[in-house]
Write a structure and sequence with these properties.
By secondary structure, this protein is of the alpha/beta class. The chain is built from 20 helices and 26 strands. An 8-stranded parallel beta sheet has the order 8-17-18-19-20-21-22-23. It has a 6-stranded mixed beta sheet with strand order 3-2-7-24-25-26, with no helix packed on it. Helix 3 crosses helix 8 and helix 14 packs across helix 17.
């Protein structure tokens, strides 16, 4: 009888035992977690409820949040960070790059011509052949005939007699076109007449005055405007491909650096259909003044519900790139005396947009690579701030901030201007950028991450994809080594400007969130913030630097939902 009584009590106790008071929807256990939370920098596990972080701690502590319906994900020692924020890239460009000729990895002019010839052979006569990604400074050899360091269209035109060709430079600041495209644009067979100058751009000519096929900066528009507009179906395909790429690369938030209304509407459609798997922070393109005027009247669209699509900033393209010698400089290019690049947007427009944006509640993000462009934009921002002394927390940005005069570096911190930089550009550009700027200008003001951070400025990170692949691993590697992706030189270029690994991670997470006014919602792994995580198969914070580039994204989590898992 006693035994039966004991069993009855035991059964009752088990029946009355409660599960966790607030059971988690998911728990992630047995990880090495870098939280980017100064108060609690490392952890082992995290619990998630309704897409938000419920608890952070040891695996043993977080295990207590496991209920009957909790999904338990054992990360088996993998490394977790906050979801990565790509702070400057081009969403549709990433997608279209997969639908067109991808020339990013072309190593010679002959290889480029071969790829275009293959595409033309599959096209109907008169169809456009388009592509992007070539960069002559990255080729292992140059063709025999060049003008100003660029190839000429002769060989390209020979293999494409029936198809116009438009190939965007990797930087997006120049294009390479064939004879057919030049004819359609009315800038071929000039019979000795030089083409008219293009404001904010240049048609590169050979010594006889003939177009070479290279169109710099705004001159590219002479041909690009002739390319048939994309169909809605193709745009949707491009967006689908772009989102898939971002999921696979561990990106949970994306700053789209210049979109039109059609792109915003397409992203909204994907959101409404439940297909938006990356949070979008969209900058309105400054190339459409009527678009800006419409948004000034209605004000920003800030998504405070699910934080998937926000439109509250404006992108202005103010100069070119170093690769095309379009970056606007205070002094001549070292390898092209008498040339200082291009002001691709009148500075009066920067003043006008800044002064309208502030009372309307918009952030301004201005592309500036050269020291003249950076200086001019800082001057315009400063004047606009002075006209609106009561406006606080504006967080205006300079996109790239690649080459800055030493006198202007402290102004970023003093004015609260964010430097939205891409560390991967150091790896890709630094070996040849010294030819453009010379040693002194490179050392004093190019890719000066530490100098900017020491000024008090926030420095964000990214890739400018499709200028570079959107993969964050190479950019993180560049941040902490300042080497090329081949591991050169020893000690890195201007090694005193390297980021620590903690700084590099913060630039890709919490600082990116700050740059879109979302640091209270995401960017670190803390209770009450959103459950956006990136999981790596190696510990990027501790492995030898030469192992970083071998690291892969193992999992991407958006609001607690796994949107990518390594096969």
């Amino acid at each position: 009888m006693r035994k039966l009584y004991f069993l009855a009590v035991l059964t009752l106790l088990f029946a009355c035992k409660k599960g966790p008071e607030t059971p988690a929807d998911q728990v992630f256990l047995n990880a090495v977690i870098y939280t980017v939370d100064e108060a609690n920098p490392k952890a082992e596990a995290v619990a998630v409820k309704d897409g938000m972080i419920l608890a952070v701690g040891t695996s043993e502590e977080v295990q207590t949040y496991v209920g009957d319906a909790t999904e338990v994900i054992d990360l088996q020692g993998k490394t977790m960070t906050p979801g990565l924020v790509e702070s400057h890239a081009h969403l549709m460009g990433i997608g279209y790059n997969k639908l067109e000729l991808d020339l990013m990895y072309v190593k010679t002019y002959d290889e480029l011509v071969e790829k275009v010839a293959e595409a033309a052979a599959k096209a109907k006569p008169g169809d456009w052949v388009t592509g992007r990604g070539w960069h002559q400074d990255k080729w292992i050899e140059m063709p025999e005939k060049t003008v100003q360091g660029f190839p000429t269209h002769d060989a390209l035109s020979a293999v494409t007699p029936d198809n116009p060709v438009y190939l965007a430079h990797a930087s997006g600041h120049a294009s390479f076109v064939n004879e057919k495209a030049l004819e359609l644009a009315g800038i071929s067979n000039l019979k000795g007449e030089r083409p008219k100058e293009v404001e904010g751009g240049e048609i590169i000519l050979d010594p006889l005055g003939n177009p070479t096929g290279i169109l710099a900066e705004r001159a590219s528009g002479l041909v690009s405007r002739l390319i048939p507009e994309e169909t809605p179906e193709r745009a949707a395909e491009a967006l689908t491909l772009a989102l898939k790429e971002l999921n696979e690369k561990g990106i949970t938030s994306f700053h789209d650096a210049g979109a039109n209304q059609a792109t915003i509407d397409l992203i909204q459609k994907f959101k409404d259909e439940g297909k938006l798997t990356v949070r979008q922070y969209v900058m309105l393109t400054g190339r459409e003044p009527e678009l800006l005027e419409a948004w000034y009247k209605k004000g920003p669209m800030i998504d405070t519900a699910d934080h998937l699509l926000t439109v509250r900033s404006i992108k202005l393209n103010c100069d070119g790139a170093l690769g095309s010698r379009g970056a606007w400089l205070l002094e001549d290019y070292s390898d092209r005396p008498g040339h200082r690049g291009h002001e691709t947007l009148p500075m009066s427009v920067v003043s006008e947009v800044s002064e309208k944006a502030i009372p309307a509640g918009f952030q301004v993000c201005s592309h500036a690579i050269g020291d003249r462009a950076n200086q001019e934009i800082l001057d315009r921002y400063e004047a606009a701030f002075a006209k609106n002394p009561d406006a606080k927390n504006l967080r205006f940005r300079i996109e790239h901030a690649q080459h800055i005069h030493p006198d202007d570096i402290p102004r970023f911190g003093q004015m609260g201007v964010i430097a939205a930089m891409q560390a991967i550009h150091l790896s890709s550009d630094r070996p040849w950028a010294i030819d453009r700027l010379g040693e002194k200008r490179i050392i004093d003001g190019a890719y000066v991450w530490q100098k900017l951070m020491q000024s008090g400025a926030v420095v964000t990170n990214g890739t400018d994809a499709p200028v570079e692949p959107v993969d964050p691993i190479p950019s993180f590697y560049a941040s902490v080594t300042r080497k090329t992706l081949q591991g050169l030189p020893d000690g890195g270029y201007e090694g005193d400007q390297k980021m620590t690994r903690e700084q590099a991670l913060k630039s890709y997470t919490l600082d990116g969130a700050y740059a879109e006014f979302e640091e209270d919602f995401k960017g670190s792994i803390q209770v009450g913030k959103v459950a956006d995580f990136t999981v790596f198969d190696q510990n990027i914070m501790e492995i030898p630097e030469e192992e970083i580039l071998k690291t892969k994204v193992a999992m991407t989590v958006l609001g607690g939902k796994i949107v990518y898992s390594m096969p």
